[in-house]
Design brief:
Shape: globular
Number of helices: 20
Bound molecules: adenosine-5'-triphosphate, magnesium ion
CATH topology of the largest domain: Rossmann fold
Structural class: alpha/beta
Number of strands: 18
Number of domains: 4
Largest sheet: 5 strands, parallel
Strand content: 5-15%
CATH class of the largest domain: Alpha Beta
CATH architecture of the largest domain: 3-Layer(aba) Sandwich
Amino acid sequence: MSKQRILVVDDEPDICDLLKLTLERMDLTVITADCLTQANNLIANQAFDLCLTDLKLPDGSGLDLVSDIQINHPDIPVAVITAHGNMDTAITALKSGAFDFISKPLDLHHLRTIVKSALKVGTNTADRRSRDTLLGESPQICDVRSKITKVARTQAPTLIYGESGTGKELVATLIHQKSPRSDQPFIPINCGAIPHELMESEFFGHKKGSFSGAVADKTGLFQAANGGTLFLDEVAELPLSLQVKLLRAIQEKSVRPVGSEHEIQVDVRIISATHKNLGQLVEEGKFRQDLFYRINVIELKVPALRDRIGDIDYLARHLLEKLAVRDRIRLPKLSEDALKKLTGYKFPGNVRELENTLERALAWCSGTTIHADDLGLPESQPEQVTTEIEASKPSNLNLEDYLEDIERKVITSALEHNRWNKTATAENLGISFRALRYRLKKLDLR
Ligand SMILES: Nc1ncnc2c1ncn2[C@@H]1O[C@H](COP(=O)(O)OP(=O)(O)OP(=O)(O)O)[C@@H](O)[C@H]1O
Ligand SMILES: [Mg+2]
């Protein structure tokens, strides 16, 4: 097999030499460029497996190179070299598609790790698997699938958000599976499910005897995920006290078990998920802004099922097939009326609710066909906010009263639609939580 080729772009000869020497020892071919123009020429005419670029170049910014490669050669991973401690540029680089960053002075051990994992990206074969599991053909879900592929190539902390049951955990798993970390552990933590007093020890481990009940040394989830991915599910539920410690662990790339004197180095990629509006929680002082900034370098939204009703038919058939295989029963047909009912339903619980609905229908249906009645879905649907507006005609000509009437209807409808969850309602209406609270009070709605 021919050697893999790396393009190193830096105008400091010393750095170029150091990189060349280190990478050649890893049995790689290294080509160097000292400016953007030269780098662009090389990339246009030769094949590369990886590019390492400094950010400050004599004829421009390395960030432009990152973006150009993203567009014209999306198969070449790029890592950037940043000045020490310049986290902001590092984050900007990750957002523009860089795979990872290395800060100066160069830590050669870190460099080797990054290069090794970057070179593994292209050889990953999990591509088909993801198409098979994140089902759907709507443009929205195709977009999520293509984002998964891109996000998997970087090490950037990623925040997945979307309503309950939309597939956030599935997306996180797929990012891991398609990433160069796929042969290392994927460790999910449900931040809402661990009792507060045990959290620190669960996350970072503890030493024997550090508190009553600590009868032996315990490895924390961070260490368990070393080399792999840590999935912080329901991240909004983290208590503030742990948010501080988590931020530290992410920044320092090390953890200290409860009762221990020593820091342990850990290399984990953080993926978080939430169905809440984290930005809003930051505003309300319930989530630390600095932590939000760190975990939210890349944001990935998973759309609600009702916003891609084109997928319902497809998903329903595939999920039914999966359930039939699992239960070893004959695959029943989905009648036209059942399908109509499914596509007309708003699915507040999204794909999970669809799955449950079908499972129930399988149990209830007699014979080989599932009819609308077997689905057990409610008759009435929460009205769409827009139809409510159209339906309300001015009963008198007082503008104030008329507008207030519309406002009341829109808000009530949105509240019902979001099952009285005010944060979700505010988000849905595109107003702040505070603005919603103000309006509820004004309209005497409770
Ligand atoms: N596009 C999809 N294709 C196939 N299955 C899906 C899809 N989206 C979700 N699912 C399935 O729906 C169920 C719910 O998904 P998941 O647990 O990932 O949702 P979630 O967003 O994490 O929900 P919650 O916020 O309630 O934790 C799972 O069984 C998952 O496999
Ligand atoms: Mg989940």
